[in-house]
Each structure stands twice: as C-alpha cells, then as structure tokens.
C-alpha cells in the first residue's frame, strides 16, 4: 500500500433498533470523515445487532430506502462504509448476513457471509460472498466473522490481489486470542494488511471483547482498541509506513 486511511468502527448496537443504530452510524461516518478515513468498516450485523430472533423481521433488500440517508451521507463525506445488515437477495427469500458497501461515489455493493457459525443456520442461509473493492487504488477483500475461520477464504482474497482483508466480526473475550492470532497470521502469510471491526458492547447475549485492531502486511499490530466502547480504530499508510490511533466517538445517541 502507498497512501490509504482506513478505520474499524467499533460500535455499540442497540438490539433491533434500526433507526437508532442508523443515527449512531451517522456519527461514526462524521467522526471518520474528520479523521480523513477513506474506508470505514463496521461489525457484523451492526445496524440491528447480532439478534437472530428478530433478523428475519428486520431483513431488507439491499436497495431499501431505509439506508438512503446513510448512502447520501457516505457520498457527501467521501467515505466508503461497510455496514452490517440482515438482507434478502433477489434470488431467494432466505435471510443472509450482509455487509453492504455504501460507496463514496454513491454506489452500493453487497457482500453476504459465506460461512456460518454453528446455530446460525437456524436463521440464516450461507451467503454468496461478493466482489473485491477498489479504495484509493488498493484492492480490498471483505469477510464477515466466521468467514475468516476458513483459511481458504483469506487465500482467495490474496489470490484476487487484495492488499487489505477487512472483517466485520463479533468476538467475545474467550475467543479473542485465538481469533486475532488467525487474522495476524493471514497478514503475515499473505502479505496483506488486515482490519478487524468488533462490536463495542453486548449484543445478542454475547459480551463483545471490543479491542478492534489493524495489522500491517508483515503481521505487526499497527493499532488496537484497549477494550470495548464506541471507538474508531484508525490506521494510515504513507509510502509503506503505517501509523495508527484510537479515537473515541462522542455524541452517539
């Protein structure tokens, strides 16, 4: 990577409160723009919380007008944001765990989680993945939580030329050490930066560890949050040199 500014949006999701979570996401967009962020990645199912019981009722088609205010804001601020939402795709009535790409150019991209955790199949269908992104001339591959537990997923991203592997996740304290070791290993093995955006608080009965992080292409930790809470974890690459910072997001509802 030459020059790029990215951020993990470590956000707290209010269970099932789409309008409230949209308001919280708006504040993250604004904070990211203040930091010069070009790519902002939110946790898994960030707009609803990790709430299986209500996912089917809350699921939308990606083009649903409810997301238009966020799409408009992303374009206005010049930030590409990846937000988590249960979605129904055109080919099926099944509910999938979506990561919707709200482009800085007004575009809309769809990634759906390919690999489900045990128990998720009771609510969700396996997703279809999605295309890589081009952010500032850099290739970005997306992942949602359990996707990264499959080594083939990261290997495919590397084969596609990804310089950044960006995952929206829900990781508890119990799983944190093992899961971050996997992500750090991918960075080192495939010579690609890795971003992990974790939830900032309790969701779906799971207490998230927070501690979102970003690793460089050699596996070195650039920056990580110290714990939970509403935070931006920002990393900036200039001529191959990474610098990171953690920025509290104030003014969330």
Automatic annotation (TrEMBL):
Name recorded for this polypeptide: CN hydrolase domain-containing protein
Pfam families, alphabetized: CN_hydrolase
GO terms, biological process: putrescine biosynthetic process from arginine
Upper classification of the organism: Bacteria, Pseudomonadati, Pseudomonadota, Gammaproteobacteria, Pseudomonadales
InterPro entries: Aliph_Amidase/BUP, C-N_Hydrolase, C-N_Hydrolase_sf
Record-annotated CN hydrolase domain positions: 4-239
Entry keyword set: Hydrolase
Gene Ontology terms, MF aspect: N-carbamoylputrescine amidase activity
Residues spanning the signal sequence: none
